[in-house]
Amino acid sequence: MSFAVATHPVIESLPYAVTAGQWFACVRHLPQPMLLGSGTSPHPAARFDILVADPVYLLRTRAATTTVTQADGAVIESSTDNPFEVLARYCPLQPDCVVADLPFTGGAVAWFGYELLHRNNHLPVHAAATLTLPDMLAGIYDWAVIIDHQQHCSSLVLSCVDAGRADAVRKLFLEKRQALPVSQPFKLLAPFASKFSRDEYLQRFRRIIDYIHAGDCYQVNLAQCFTAPCEGDSFTAFEQLQIRANAPFAAYLQDGEHTVLSFSPERFVKVEQGVVTTQPIKGTKPRSEDPVQDLRNRHDLENSNKDKAENLMIVDLLRNDLGRVCSFGSVTVESLFELQSFTNVHHLVSTIKGRLQKPEDVFRLLAACFPGGSITGTPKLRSMQIINELESMPRSVYCGVIAWIDHSGNMDSNIAIRTLVRDRNHIHCWGGGGIVADSVGSEEYQETLDKISMLINNL
Hints:
By secondary structure, the chain is α+β, with helices and mostly antiparallel strands. It has a single domain, classed as 4-Layer Sandwich (Anthranilate synthase), CATH 3.60.120.10. It has 10 helices and 25 strands. Strands 1, 2, 3, 9, 10, 11, 12, 13, 14, 15, 21, 24 and 25 form a 13-stranded antiparallel β-sheet that branches. Strands 6-5-4-8-7-22-23 form a 7-stranded antiparallel β-sheet, covered by helices on one side. Strands 16, 17, 18, 19 and 20 form a 5-stranded antiparallel β-sheet that branches. Helix 2 (83-90) runs antiparallel to helix 8. The model has no long low-confidence stretch (mean pLDDT 92).
């Protein structure tokens, strides 16, 4: 089952001077408002902001069941099929509806939690499964606001087939811009605290080294979770942190008492007219306010054989993941170990490309690559088993994926690192890193702190 899609979406201009946050404030009273932001840095992905709300269909996956509801809340399907297969049924594709200079004209915007496919991979539910967010939350949207920071223009894109619905959406943006007042700014009620101590982290680190020496794996991504009680409006926290992070794959997603605030620097998978691009990050050094030290850290990373080896392991894993779906012989490595600098860290980034045989393969591609190899390790399944054994909390949306999938079959997505997950009156933040045979425990522990210091120290 799927809803009808307008063959030619209606595009209406909006004033570029109105920010994404201002537009978002006008619609966040609607169900499932979502904002994907790209920041203002020189990063090549820093171009479009995408805003949606009030989906036609909503898909939530909990445990092994995906429940599909209509806008009025009526349940129309409960399925134990692979969640990506269910999503494909409700996100119809029309490959000919590509609109130049608009990445998204309607379709799915979603989070896919790290544990989404654990049951498919015969992984047990985490012993500390206390978070109440769904493993997948996907809205199917028939309108969007697109802000293009390269062309300095904003557009309201309507793919609604119902004229009354289209008119109601227009009124939100063209007739009134009265934002709802913020009832209470976000604040922490106590500092973030880790779920385990430094000594406990190092014990788990040594266990991974033992697994590596025993031949179980080559690399495992180990994360620690920090939690704090909180109150107030999460969107105020998102805007405050994005000013500092300036992340190219930022996202704010809201589902009742659950909110996700992502400041990710990492692309997961992009599909544009059948061309697939994935860009794993492996290799990290902290930024420094001292320009000389900052340059030294940059050069140390560029010349680090250890970090390059970590990166190459993940490149090989992702070549294999893409090869399961992409056309034979189309998977190539475009670049290795490119240094990219962000607000608080330097990273090494590699780029792998391939080509899909048909647009519908975008859903198979997501399933084949999920979760991302850069946040599991190699081999993927054994690393995930070890992560499940050693980490103190389920990851939820952290290290999952936040994505949009257009009706054309185009998509883009992030790896949800540098991501905060709010579950009612508590907020959680994870920091992790890849561990290999020659890793040093104290350095890996410090790296987990370096990656998220900007987030947990500025709320």
